[in-house]
Amino acid sequence: MTRRTWVRLDNASNIFLAARSETDPKVFRISADMDHQVDPVLLQSALDTTYDRYHLYHAVLRRAIFWYYLQDSDLRPTVTEDTKYTCAPIYDANRTGLLFRVVYYRERISLEVFHALSDGTGALWFLTDLISAYLRLRHPEHQALEDTSTAELTAQPGAHEAALARGLTGDSFAQYFHPATPPTQPHDKDSLPKPQKAFRVSGTRTPDYRTRAVEVTMPAKDVLALARAEGISLTMYLTALFFEAIRSSSGGLGKSQTLAATVPVNLRQFFPSVSPRNFFATVRVEHTYGKGDDDIGSVGRNLDNQFRPQATPEALDKKLRRFAKFERSPLLRVVPRPLKDTILRGVNWVNNRGLSVSVSNLGRVTLPKPAEDHVGRMGFHVSAVRPQICVMSHAGHLNVSFTSPFVEMDHIRHFVRTLTAHDIHVTVDATRVTEEELTPTSESQP
Fold first, then answer.
1. Residue at 445 is within a domain
2. DSSP state letter for 262
3. At what angle do helices 234-250 and 220-229 cross, to 10 degrees?
């Protein structure tokens, strides 16, 4: 009998399993637009090569009495045409299967991942290597180019390849945030004000719980100039713009004049890691309207002033050790897995009550040769329990993807109109979710 490698899930992955639902299956998608129509045969060959390098992506999810765990498998992935709705469920507790899929449609290649397997950065590494392998097959003149797509992410030669090979065992949370080890530096008591009760966005649920996804694309330099003019980061500028779009489209925020967002932080920038597994934390920011200046620049500066002290290595270290202590508490360790799920689901529900929207930015992506010369727009988005924007830029294109469990798109219209009022050229692509929209009238992307 073959001995299988297995490992318990990290603390972020356990939350995704407990919190997944019919509305939000905890799946995200990263896409890249080629300069040609995708060849599925070559893409399959590239996937076979890339898959052999990423041992983590061989994993399937298993359930034990006290925990979930990842276990390697002999399954092989198959490239398919993109015919399902975006971010459709991947993990099925009643069926053993891989936790990702690769799909194509016309010029676009997309990778969809169950979030318990990997985060956006780890998935971007996989997609980068996949596209590079595909383009070397399509352009034989590039075959001699060295495959440095992800090895360049670390200063230690061979470290990334070693991390891929031990994919199932590279838990960076356990490496850096074990509660028994001392913190990196002492951290003062939290000085942030007590969180306010936040406005909850509501709407009409999509008929079959599919995610409404809308891609808004614009010149990156033009939007970055708006953020720099206000003296704030692009992420906080877009968050402030998102807040204003929600406020304007809601017709007022009712009794609660506070909007709150959760913003993921890639921990690899502070705690060196080349593991493709989940390694991020979240930061909460909020703004209460009617208590000062509420223009987009002022709101963005308020959010930036909250975000920066929470996104330091010391603050993140303290926060994540607290989570690790909770996860490894003797009482919780002996609680059966179904009851753990209930507890974590309750914790997640409480956290969600204090949030209005979510904002995630994977930043500016630079691909290795030959991919950089053949890839245009890139973007990503997630299944969502609340309105969310996901941001990515490549080749001068800034892609802001809106996802929501609701049919309504008024907040997106307000968002776009604000940008066009600043003479920003914007293109919009929306998925179809209602019965009326899905009625075939012309050839359209799924």
1. no
2. E
3. 90
Tokens encoding 115? 């979030």
| pLDDT confidence bin for 156, thresholds 50/70/90 | very low
Domain assignment present for 351: yes
What is the Cα–Cα distance from 173 to 70, expressed in whole angstroms?
A: 16
Q: 110 with 218, same domain?
A: no
> Between the CA of residue 13 and those of 70, 93, 119, 175, 357, what are the distances in Å?
10, 15, 9, 16, 21
388 to each of 305, 429, 433, how far by Cα in Å? 21, 16, 17
CA distance 194 to 281: 20
pLDDT tens digits along 354-397: 999 999 999 999 999 878 999 999 999 999 999 999 999 999 99
Helices in 277-365 by DSSP H: which ranges?
A: 296-310, 313-327, 330-333, 337-353
CATH number for the domain including 374? 3.30.559.10
Across 41-105, where does the E strand assignment appear? 60-63, 68-71, 80-81, 100-105
Bridge-based pairing state of the strands 357-364 and 388-394: parallel
The domain containing residue 370 runs over which residues? Answer: 212-438
Q: Is residue 207 part of a domain?
A: no
B/e letters for 132-151, b = 16+ CB within 10 Å, e = fewer, are bbbbbbbeeebeeeeeebbb
For residue 139, the one-letter residue type is: H
Beta bridge partners of 32: 109, 378
Q: Are 78 and 125 in contact (CB under 8 A)?
A: no
Q: Which residue has the tokens 């929209």?
A: 437
Residues 263 and 149 in one domain: no
Q: What is the pLDDT of residues 257-287, one digit of tens each?
A: 999 999 999 999 999 888 899 999 999 999 9
| Whole-number Å distance between alpha carbons of 381 and 27 | 9
Q: Are 95 and 114 in contact (CB under 8 A)?
A: no
Instruction: Report the residue count for the chain.
Output: 446
- Note whether residue 217 is domain-resident: yes
In angstroms, the CA 211 to CA 204 distance is 12
The string of pLDDT tens digits covering residues 326-358 is 776 766 677 888 888 888 888 888 888 899 999
Backbone phi, psi, residue 398, to 5° = -100, 120
CA–CA distance, 59 with 6 (Å, rounded to integer): 8
Take residue 425 and report the two structure tokens written for it: 């050229």
Closest CA to 120 of 134, 100, 103: 100
Place of tokens 């992307």: 445
In the numeric block, the tokens 């905890």 are attached to: 26
**pLDDT tens digit sequence for 17-38:** 888 988 899 999 999 999 999 9
Structural domains of the chain, count: 2
| 371 vs 351: CA distance, rounded Å | 40
